[in-house]
Each structure stands twice: as structure tokens, then as C-alpha cells.
Design a protein that fits this description.
This protein is of the alpha/beta class. The chain contains 10 helices and 20 strands. Helices cover 26% and strands 24% of the residues. The strands form 4 sheets. An 8-stranded mixed β-sheet has the order 6-7-5-15-16-17-14-18, with helices on both faces. The longest helix is centred in the last third of the chain and has 16 residues.
Length: 401
């Protein structure tokens, strides 16, 4: 069982096989798989608890429906871990409130049927054989609230959403790591280009291996080793609405044409829309403000394919709406950066998931630990840092669901 504590001098860990920086779901999953592999692991988290910043500000949704084989393979394995998390982490009966009500991607495009049939065929060829293609009539038969304009959709029942706080603590409690709260990493000690210790605001932890799982602060952490990461931080907002008009048996429902999405949440719904406004790259922040008018904007966006949201909007009161925001760490190809950093011996990355960190956390973290152990060669890692050489961030690329 992990030792989660605010350390003092008497129990300060002078050494570790591996130090993980960041106590969100990625850091805790990394610590779990590292201790499963027999590594003496220390996790550093500056906050009073785990999963306090970026992780809980996500939509908490998880899916394997991607349109490239690398993400499909990773996310499929991650969802299987979430489905069986109590057994994976050795905590019988542990509940992460996993709602496998599916992901429904819809379009009103005239060529939608052709486009989505081809997408489903690709997904089947990559081993994701339970994705369904639905024509417009079938979508409305299954989900009567869908607009008449929808021409086609894809659906996978095993996708859904979960409680990120519980999932994070499941990985933490299932590990044997020493998890140090209120302990901020502030730099590295290095011997030439090799890490020899992590400097914290409480003292040194000597180690030859560090996993950077610091979320929006990952560029700052990498910079301690003289490494510049090709990551932009963009604000992402969400709204939670309480209304009895929102169908609680609905899937995660996404407008492929605009990016607006919603799902059931706590006798109401959770909504998001990256394209609701133009966001500029920002510096990392612990607490990110949301726009006061975002709930109205995103509800209007969701009305397009689910007209019942118009009636929801008419009945809403200020007390029944809450908006919040976090930051996505976005790479040029919207895929994570996993594994060792050339030129900085001992530094490994588990960053840059571009809004998909919760859903990729189990398998992405497991792979990073395998790389720490030397069990995955760089050429066999499709998420290695070197792949991004020469790539630039696309101008105006906002949609990351």
C-alpha cells in the first residue's frame, strides 16, 4: 500500500529508483506501474492532495474511438484497464463509477455516411471491431432526441466516463510508492547531461530516473534539464447544468462538425466546446478562470444536434449552472509524448496528451515504465519525442475532444 504523506525530516526519502513529478492521474498511474515492476518510487505533488488541478477539470470521459492505429491501440488497452481497475490495482470492490454508456459521434454533412463508413472500416481493421456505423434513421431510432438533420454517426458502447478522483487514488493506493504531498519539485541536479537528483522545496531526492508527468507544468520541468518541449497550453472550459430534461441514459454525444459535446452528469449534464471561442496559448496556472457566458454559448452549440437543449436553456437559473476551466497540453500532432529525452539521460516524459490524458493514463503510463526498464526500444515507440522534429502547431487548430 502506498504511503501518502506530508513528509518531515524523519521519513524523508534520500534515494529512489524513480521519481515521478506530478500527482494527477498520469503521475499516479506511472507510480503504480513502476512499483508493480519493483522500482522504489517516490511521487512528488505540490498540492495538499492528489488530482487537485488538471485531472478533475477534464470531462472525465474515456474512449477508444480514434482515427489512427496508435491511439486506438493505446486507448483500447487503457479502457480495458479501467473496466477492471479494482483487479488491476489489487483493491477488491474499488469503484471508479465507470459509466459505459458509449460515445456517439454525429454529423450533418451530406458526405457523412461515406466518410463515417470508411472511418469505421479503418477502426475495425485496427482491432476496434465493436464500433458501429449508424445512418441517420438508426441514430434517431436509438436516440430520439437527435435532430432530423443528422446524416450519420458512429457509436461504441464500451466508451464512456468515470470518476477521475477515484481512478487517480485507485492507482495511488494500489502502488507501494512513497507519495509526498505539499512537496514541490523545483529543479534537477545533473552530472553533465545526466540527472542525479531532484531538488524539492524540502530537500534532495537522489535518483537516476525521473518521469515528468507534470501536466501543464511539463515544459517548465523539462526546462530544468535544458529541454524545450513542442507543447502549447490552451484553456478548455466545461459547464455542468442541473436539469431534469437531460436524458440520463444518453451517451457522450459529440457534434463532429463543430466539436460541441455533452453527456449526462449528476441529474443534469456536462457540456464542452473547444471551438466556442478563440483561445491563445498561455502560461501554466493552478487555477484557470472560466468565462461567465460560456454555459450559454455551449448550450447553444449543443442545440444544433440535440434540440431539447433549447428547452433546458429556457428553464435554467443561475444556481443550476456551473462553469470551470483547465489547460490542455497540446502537441503539433495531438498525440502524447512518451519516453526518454535524447540528451537528458534519466529524464522520461508522460505528457502532451492534448486533452486525452485521462483516457490514455493507464496504458501510456505502463508504456513509460517499460521504457524506463529498457523493455521498449525507441524505434518501437510511436509516441517518442523525436517524431515531432520539424512539425509546427497548426494555426487555428482548436478541436481536440
Amino acid at each position: 500500500m502506498a504511503k501518502i504523506m506530508i513528509p518531515d525530516a524523519a521519513d524523508w526519502p534520500l534515494t529512489a529508483d524513480l521519481v515521478v513529478i506530478g500527482g494527477g492521474i498520469l503521475g499516479c498511474a506511472t507510480a503504480f506501474y513502476a512499483t508493480q515492476a519493483g522500482l522504489d518510487t517516490v511521487l512528488l505533488e505540490k498540492e495538499d492532495g492528489l488530482a487537485c488541478l488538471t485531472t478533475p477539470e477534464s470531462a472525465e470521459a474515456v474512449r477508444a474511438q480514434f482515427d489512427d492505429p496508435d491511439n486506438v491501440a493505446m486507448m483500447k488497452a487503457s479502457l480495458e484497464a479501467f473496466e477492471n481497475l479494482s483487479q488491476v490495482v489489487g483493491l477488491p470492490g474499488y469503484d471508479i463509477d465507470f459509466h459505459q454508456q458509449g460515445y456517439l459521434f454525429m454529423t450533418t454533412a451530406a458526405d457523412g455516411p461515406e466518410t463515417l463508413r470508411a472511418r469505421v472500416q479503418r477502426q475495425h481493421s485496427w482491432g476496434l471491431t465493436d464500433v458501429e456505423y449508424l445512418d441517420g434513421d438508426e441514430v434517431r431510432r436509438r436516440f430520439p432526441y437527435v435532430a432530423a438533420e443528422v446524416t450519420a454517426a458512429t457509436f461504441r458502447q464500451r466508451d464512456g466516463w468515470l470518476a477521475t478522483h477515484e481512478a487517480t487514488y485507485g492507482f495511488a493506493k494500489g502502488s507501494t510508492a512513497r507519495i509526498l504531498l505539499q512537496t514541490e519539485a523545483v529543479g534537477f541536479q545533473m552530472d553533465g547531461a545526466a540527472i542525479t537528483a531532484v531538488q524539492t522545496d524540502r530537500g534532495l531526492v537522489h535518483t537516476r530516473a525521473v518521469v515528468n508527468a507534470a501536466g501543464p507544468y511539463c515544459c517548465q520541468v523539462a526546462g530544468w534539464a535544458g529541454v524545450e518541449l513542442p507543447i502549447l497550453l490552451l484553456r478548455r472550459q466545461k459547464a455542468v447544468v442541473h436539469s431534469e430534461l437531460i436524458p440520463q441514459n444518453a451517451p457522450m454525444t459529440i457534434d463532429l462538425d463543430t466539436g460541441a459535446y455533452w453527456r449526462p452528469e449528476a441529474k443534469g449534464g456536462l457540456l464542452g466546446w473547444a471551438e466556442a471561442g478563440e483561445e491563445q496559448p498561455a502560461e501554466p496556472a493552478d487555477h484557470v478562470p472560466a468565462d461567465w457566458d460560456f454555459p450559454a454559448v455551449v448550450i447553444e452549440g449543443c442545440m444544433r444536434l440535440a434540440p431539447f437543449w433549447e428547452e433546458v436553456a429556457e428553464r435554467l437559473t443561475a444556481e443550476s449552472v456551473h462553469a470551470s476551466a483547465g489547460q490542455y497540453s497540446i502537441t503539433p500532432d495531438h498525440k502524447p509524448i512518451l519516453g526518454p529525452v535524447p540528451g537528458a539521460a534519466g529524464l522520461y516524459l508522460n505528457v502532451g496528451y492534448s486533452g486525452h490524458g485521462v483516457m490514455g493514463a493507464p496504458e501510456g503510463s505502463r508504456r513509460v515504465v517499460e521504457m524506463v526498464l529498457g523493455n521498449i526500444a525507441p524505434e518501437d515507440n510511436p509516441f517518442r519525442l523525436e517524431r515531432l522534429e520539424g512539425l509546427e502547431h497548426g494555426v487555428g487548430e482548436q478541436m481536440v475532444i
